[in-house]
Amino acid sequence: MKLLVRTGLAAAVAAGAIATAVVPASAAVGVGDAHVVAGAHAVAPNPKTIKPAAYNQARSILAGAGSRTAAKSHPIHGKDDVPVSYGTSLLAAARDEFRQTDRKLPPKDKKSDMSIPHYNAIHSAAKTMGIDKW
User: Fold this and answer.
1) Cβ atoms of residues 119 and 112 within 8 Å
2) What is the residue range of the signal peptide feature (predicted)?
3) Whole-prediction pTM
4) Which residues in the chain land under pLDDT 70?
5) How far is Cα of residue 128 from the mean position of the Cα atoms in its chain?
6) 116: CB partners within 8 A, 6+ apart
7) Is 114 left (phi over 0), alpha (psi -120 to 50) or beta?
8) Burial 94-108 (b: 16+ CB within 10 A, else e)
């Protein structure tokens, strides 16, 4: 009986030692929730809220680049913060609109399926709001 208990205890200690040695090695493989691609920057999570001034500035950037969706959207006022979904929706709508508008351009004049000026406007607006994923 004592031999059985000692053997079981020894097996448990050995399994614990192996798990302890394996966990740090495997934990170094992942990089949290960030998506890592060789040659690209790690994508940080979006903020939970954005400032109305940043949203309004991004809206102006996109409207100036020709986004009718952004031009039709209403400026935000009277609030301290707004959900980040306001910004991501604005960016996604402008992106889709720009891709549709630029679909007939030759591939050499496009980046991410839109003209270079539209691409730059989208990314400038996203940077203004602190948004990485939309």
Assistant:
1) yes
2) 1-27
3) 0.67
4) 1-43
5) 14
6) 109, 110
7) beta
8) bbebbbeebeeeeee
